[in-house]
Amino acid sequence: TPTQWAQRAPHNPRAVTLGDRVFAPGVAVRLQGQLLEALAAYHAEQPLSLGAHRRELRRGRLGHLPDRVFDALVDRLSVNRLVHVDGPLVRVAGFAVELTADQAALRAHLEQTIGAAGIGGMSIKALHEAHPEPEVAALLRLVEAADIAIQVPGVGWVSRTELSKLTQAL
Question: pTM for the full model?
Answer without folding.
Answer: 0.74
